[in-house]
């Protein structure tokens, strides 16, 4: 049965019914719909719309329903109801009869759906925050464990300057910290209750919306009913946060895929998260990471989709807004799955110390050091840069690393270069000099790891 049949003479077409239904996806809001309905029943009671006894009966029946769905939420899908709100109401009426029909007094599905959705988002955000923290912990532990591993840092995917594996890990910790801060920010704006907004202009019943909001853990009630039922900013904001964080995860994936390639050979991925080829027996493919990289696109798609759905939508509620859910549900699940997968990848990674170091030694990544050395001897940076570049060219032609050039060769390019050049261009020296805040110096990195461990309660 529909919630709105009175005004109609004819039944809706079978095809339209199917087209209009949202139960197949909004059933996952069942728990939230029941929670908000219990809170609403208490508000109705406090305002004298139903008696204390009636409220108790409604609450117990809804509670019973909650236990039933916790046992098997998928049972809901057997129903023919239009959406989750109709389903909860129908079940309530089946349980307690006519009294169940009082619950919708002063309420609309328009304020109901956005309340349910906000409650659902709030719960999911808490899980996501936990996993964003877990992933940070994995990075910190990997960083600590690989403190002494030197590898090349890249720009343009060209070996640029030496860094450490720890330092690379800490870069991702910074990104994840921003993801956490963004999500917490979303939570602040989201956690305001729309319930009691009615269809669009508020409810004609004398209810205390602030008290109702607080009873559901919201920080306050919304200020304008017209906005409350139209607002899906929080969906856009969550999907933006998801998109940015997924972009971070896809860059992580791409880095790891490269580190794991035969060409780089910096790490070995665990059998736990790789797969083989059906044809080529030697293959061990980084599927987990390739999937994270691709799923990023899927989440970005959901963000674009909600933006386009909401663009130019007149106030207030329009059925278009039913299309907010599938993309959101999918994106949140995808994001969370990817976080869990990234944790699994990192916790089982093996870093190949020797080949990392070899690559850092081979890539002329200490060329900046020669320029800086000359600057200290009074040469301008531009000039020093040029001399260092010529030395790189010379080293390439002699098939040597810069460290292996003869002193006489160095001096052909600048007589200012002395024997102390060699100590100045070791990988260790390159790292140690970068001690200023945010630099790669091992002492600095160690301090950052210590701070992060404190912040994340890692002992
Ligand atoms: N299933 C609807 C949605 O997800 C619920 C709200 C329906 N409101 C209405 N006026 N038809 O948006």
UniProtKB/TrEMBL annotation:
Enzyme class at the top of the EC tree: lyase
Pfam family, one: Lyase_1
Keyword vocabulary terms for this entry: Amino-acid biosynthesis, Arginine biosynthesis, Cytoplasm, Lyase
Residue ranges occupied by any Fumarate lyase N-terminal domain in the UniProt entry: 6-301
GO molecular function: argininosuccinate lyase activity
Domain Argininosuccinate lyase C-terminal: 364-432
One cellular component (GO) term of this entry: cytosol
Compartments where found: Cytoplasm
Pathway: Amino-acid biosynthesis; L-arginine biosynthesis; L-arginine from L-ornithine and carbamoyl phosphate: step 3/3
Reaction(s) the record says it catalyses: 2-(N(omega)-L-arginino)succinate = fumarate + L-arginine
PANTHER family linked: ARGININOSUCCINATE LYASE (PTHR43814:SF1)
Name assigned to this protein: Argininosuccinate lyase
Native organism taxonomy: Bacteria, Pseudomonadati, Pseudomonadota, Gammaproteobacteria, Enterobacterales
